[in-house]
Amino acid sequence: MYVTLNPDVFVQSLISLQTPSFTVGEVENISLPTVVVAGSHDPMRPACERFHKYVSGSVYEVLRSAGYLFNIDQADAFNQALFTFLDA
Q1: Nearest to 36 by CA among 28, 48, 23
Q2: In the chain, what are the helix, strand and coil shares in percent, each to the nearest 5?
Q3: What is the mean pLDDT of residues 13-22?
Q4: pTM for this structure?
């Protein structure tokens, strides 16, 4: 799948993902049940950790041996984390 991606577009998308589009105050006001999932090798993991820190009561799951596409890299672990959250 990665072979078909335009490298310049892919890099730009990663850069844009690291540019916050919300404020800490907005995130702190989230009152819905929230699960934050990241892969252990996901370049966005630090942002996910910060997001989790500011969403009161959120659940944080790190999937081992997974990158940015953790739902593909570790599909079974992702589904288990999601179903566990939804069943809670």
Answers
A1: 48
A2: 50, 10, 35
A3: 74
A4: 0.74
